[in-house]
């Protein structure tokens, strides 16, 4: 069963469906939407897979979120300011970004932990 029934690449004179999702799941459990991303000449596609509980309107849905409170922002800013970044400066050019990202993510997760709601 293919799921995309709309154009995924739109040019000046053509509109074609070049991208798709394939599944053997029942179509009532799948929701597909197009996303105009402007990242390339192809639009994005979003596929949501539902289960029977999510189809029940009385069922509550849990999700992860982060608390971007003023206090958490102050903590994050303080942690970033106190970081020496020596490991980034001393690394090779190929390592610098990964080291920076790891440090940043560590302080980000510490300051804004994920909360299940």
Name the quaternary structure.
single chain
N-C termini distance: 34 Å
Query: Which class best fits the helix and strand makeup?
Result: alpha+beta
Uncertain runs with pLDDT below 50, 5 residues or more? none
Query: What's the domain count?
Result: 2
Strand order of the largest sheet: 1-2
Q: Count the DSSP helices.
A: 4
Rg (C-alpha, Å) = 22 Å
Number of E-type strands: 6
Order of helices and strands: EEEEHEHHHE
Strand content: 15-25%
Instruction: Please state the overall shape, judged from the principal axes of the Cα atoms.
Output: flat
Q: What's the pLDDT, averaged over the residues?
A: 85
Query: What's the story with the biggest beta sheet?
Result: 2 strands, antiparallel
Helical amount: 25-40%
Describe the structure.
- It is a single chain.
- By secondary structure, this protein is α+β, with helices and mostly antiparallel strands.
- Helices cover 35% and strands 19% of the residues.
- It folds into two domains: 9-55, no CATH class; 64-116, no CATH class.
- The strands form three sheets. It has a two-stranded antiparallel sheet.
- A hairpin with a 4-residue loop joins strand 1 (9-10) and strand 2 (15-16).
- Helix 2 (70-82) packs antiparallel against helix 4.
- The longest helix has 19 residues, at 93-111.
- The protein starts with 8 loop residues before the first strand and ends with a strand.
């Amino acid at each position: 069963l293919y799921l995309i029934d709309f154009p995924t690449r739109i040019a000046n004179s053509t509109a074609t469906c070049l991208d798709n999702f394939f599944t053997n799941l029942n179509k009532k459990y799948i929701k597909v939407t197009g996303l105009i991303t402007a990242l390339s000449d192809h639009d994005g596609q979003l596929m949501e897979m539902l289960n029977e509980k999510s189809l029940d309107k009385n069922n509550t849905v849990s999700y992860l979120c982060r608390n971007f409170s003023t206090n958490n922002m102050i903590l994050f800013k303080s942690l970033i300011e106190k970081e020496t970044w020596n490991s980034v400066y001393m690394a090779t050019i190929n390592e610098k970004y990964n080291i920076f990202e790891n440090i940043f993510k560590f302080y980000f997760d510490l300051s804004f932990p994920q909360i299940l709601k």
